[in-house]
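lol forgot to send this yesterday, sorry. struct tokens for the thing we talked abt
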């Protein structure tokens, strides 16, 4: 068994590498630029939300509980549409700093739990490909498969979900390579 203390460098370095890779995938390469769409008549929709007193939160519309969903009036609302979810953030300019800090902390947490599994399943001196296989699987499950739930429950478009799963595969492979390279020898 390998101690977690012996894996601090791959945990931190993998988090840095994934952070840089995600920045490149989302800010430099063009394939995520189509993930979000502009609302038709955005100013009118924004004004209506403001006038309604909408505060930051995650909203579903039409909103109903299980009993109401069976009522004809609610069924008509769903039929008439639109049906959706909206995430409202606090007003003001978007400050990416806090989001990037949270993302980096998430990368460290994924690295820590990946290291935990690897440390309890692999011995010091395990060959690169075996470390790569175990670490890559755990990291991909954390970075990639979690995105499938957003497509299932939040209705994210399948193209967007597939891109996020592919990103997760890339992050998993980068994490696996980092751990394989820095795995304790004996």
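and heres what i got for the seq, position by position
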């Amino acid at each position: 068994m390998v101690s977690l203390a012996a894996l601090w460098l791959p945990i931190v370095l993998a988090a840095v590498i994934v952070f840089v890779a995600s920045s490149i995938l989302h800010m430099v390469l063009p394939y995520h630029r189509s993930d979000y769409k502009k609302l038709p008549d955005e100013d009118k929709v924004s004004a209506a939300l403001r006038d309604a007193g909408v505060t930051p939160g995650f909203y579903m519309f039409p909103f109903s509980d299980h009993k109401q969903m069976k009522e004809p009036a609610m069924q008509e609302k769903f039929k008439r549409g639109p049906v959706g979810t909206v995430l409202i953030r606090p007003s003001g300019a978007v400050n990416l700093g806090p989001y990037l800090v949270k993302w980096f902390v998430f990368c460290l947490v994924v690295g820590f739990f990946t290291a935990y599994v690897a440390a309890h399943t692999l011995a010091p001196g395990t060959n690169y490909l075996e470390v790569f296989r175990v670490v890559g699987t755990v990291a991909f499950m954390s970075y990639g498969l979690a995105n499938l739930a957003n497509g299932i429950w939040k209705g994210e478009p399948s193209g967007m979900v597939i891109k996020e799963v592919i990103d997760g595969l890339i992050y998993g492979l980068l994490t696996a390579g980092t751990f394989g390279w820095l795995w304790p020898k004996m």
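Residues 47-88 form one domain. anyway ping me if u want another try
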